[in-house]
Design a protein that fits this description.
The chain has about 475 residues and is an alpha/beta fold. It is built from 16 helices and 19 strands. Helix 1 crosses helix 6 (about 135-145), helix 3 (about 60-70) packs parallel to helix 4 and helix 12 packs parallel to helix 14 (about 420-435). The longest helix is centred in the C-terminal third of the chain and has 17 residues, at about 455-470. The chain is globular, with a radius of gyration of 22 Å. It binds iron/sulfur cluster. Iron/sulfur cluster binds near residues 212, 214, 222, 285 and 308.
């Protein structure tokens, strides 16, 4: 079957990231549509023909997209959508329907537990692929191609004789290590893609593992099976990227790249031995790092580690079931900086138990630890998370809360002791505490003096930080 893969256009000219854990509007980065490239290579392996329109990446608007689609012949269209740009993304299905009978298949991780609402509100969406797209998409296309039924295909919801049928959840791909290298050749050029600055191009994101066994109450990835590519398979993909596209910068998109220390040791040692010469970034947890590992990561080209700290209050951390200690977080931040790496930390304001005292503890923590970069989010009760259940139980949200408003920038949920306005004010305090802090500026300028190649990225980040701090 001919399958058209679509990353929908930018939302009001602003780039959107549509990748499982990270389904957000993001004005500073344009990422390659990794999941669609992965689906493409899986479909090719089964003999299907694929084409890709990365409207977000290439900055193709809907009128131009419609012109392209109107002349195309395909048997199914697969596209991604996210909560914050739901109606916008659904225009992809509407436009496809105008020109083709092909079934429209949408993928979104965050709304996997609001399936009926999604299909009720998106009249042109035929099939919602909820989870485990690596396992489900190839099977789905095989069945559509053969005209087989969908009633026992786990991981999807679909329409049948006016009804919405929701099948059971899918199991992860049995052997993630066997997954073919994503079809990077479908990208017109790597020139479209960057994270924060074009300085590090050619750039891509890449998953070496997916899933997280932890149970943080606010996280849409909580309690998902961890599946990983072996070190050998990761290296095969890295070599492919280097040899064919001369990739210089990679952002490993894994929820926690360092879950398996041995695997990371093997990957980093091989990057060093083979002189792959890549700069890379990864996500980790404060309890999954140590000095030796960080040293090895640095030698292998790691430039920064991103970690979720969430709060400087042990009480809030405990209620969020984060299972780390505030002191461990402080140690980890210091350890990463001591290793000569940058450390980007994310914080969340408005989690259960938050009050002015805990906000002050977090602000103090930020001033004390001075991470190289900070992302300050507002607690958002995404459907399917424990936080969503708590918010409903406590009456902080109603069952009708609109998922379109869930974007971590605006509070849609109070806590027992803080109003939404107070939570947003706490976030502003955090911006000021870090981005207007003379010690933070001195530290980061010191880093750039030692690492002049970082000037472009650091200056862009600094300007963005000032903009945020003064805008609030
Ligand atoms: S550690 Fe917690 S926040 Fe991070 S991916 Fe796992 S469940 Fe989510």
């Amino acid at each position: 079957m001919k399958v058209l893969l679509v990353n929908p256009p930018r939302f009001k000219k602003v780039s959107v990231i549509r990748e499982d854990r990270c389904e957000i509007i993001e004005k500073n980065s344009v990422l390659p549509p990794y999941s669609l490239l992965q689906i493409a290579s899986l479909l090719r392996k089964r003999g299907h023909e694929v084409s890709l329109i990365d409207a977000n990446g290439e900055n193709i608007d809907y009128p131009a997209f419609e012109k392209m689609v109107s002349g195309m012949d395909y048997g199914a269209v697969i596209f991604r959508f996210i909560p914050a740009t739901f109606d916008w993304d659904m225009q992809t299905a509407t436009i496809s329907k105008k020109h083709s009978d092909a079934p429209t298949i949408g993928i979104c991780w965050t709304l996997g537990s609001s399936v009926k609402t999604v299909l009720n509100e998106a009249k042109d969406l035929d099939i919602y692929l909820m989870d485990e797209y690596e396992a489900v998409a190839p099977e789905l296309i095989d069945r559509l191609s053969a005209g087989d039924g969908l009633s026992d295909l786990a991981g999807i919801a679909y329409r049948h004789e006016g009804e919405i049928i929701v099948n059971k959840d899918a199991s992860p791909l049995k052997n993630y290590d066997d997954i073919p290298i994503p079809a990077y050749d479908l990208l017109k050029s790597f020139d479209f893609y960057y994270a924060d600055t074009k300085h590090g191009q050619p750039f891509t994101i890449m998953y070496t593992s997916k899933g997280c066994p932890n149970s943080c109450i606010y996280c849409t990835m909580a309690n998902t099976k961890w599946k990983a590519k072996s070190a050998e398979r990761v290296l095969e993909e890295l070599r492919h990227l280097k040899q064919n596209y001369d990739i210089k910068t990679i952002m490993f998109f894994d929820e926690a790249f360092t879950i398996n220390r041995k695997r990371v040791e093997k990957i980093t040692q091989a990057i060093i031995d083979e002189k792959l010469d890549i700069h890379w970034y990864c996500n980790s947890r404060v309890d999954l790092l140590d000095r030796d590992l960080l040293e090895k990561m640095k030698q292998a080209g790691c430039k920064a580690v991103c970690m979720g700290i969430e709060s400087g209050s042990q009480k809030v951390i405990a209620e969020a079931n984060k299972r780390i200690s505030v002191e461990k977080s402080a140690e980890a931040i210091k350890m990463v900086k001591d290793a000569g790496l940058k450390v980007y930390c994310s914080f969340i304001f408005g989690l259960p138990g938050e009050n002015q005292e805990t906000v002050n503890e977090t602000i103090e923590f930020i001033k004390r630890t001075l991470p190289t970069g900070g992302e300050f989010n507002i607690a958002t009760p995404y459907p399917g998370t424990r936080l969503h259940e708590i918010a409903l139980e406590k009456g902080w949200i109603t069952g009708q809360s609109d998922f379109r408003t869930m974007n971590q920038n605006k509070s849609i949920m109070r806590t027992e002791e803080l109003t939404s306005e107070e939570i947003e004010r706490a976030r502003r305090q955090a911006h000021h505490a870090l981005f207007l802090n003379p010690k933070w500026w001195a530290q980061n300028i010191g880093y750039v003096i030692k690492n002049p190649e970082d000037f472009s990225l650091a200056s862009k980040y600094a300007l963005g930080a000032l903009k945020i701090a003064f805008a609030h």
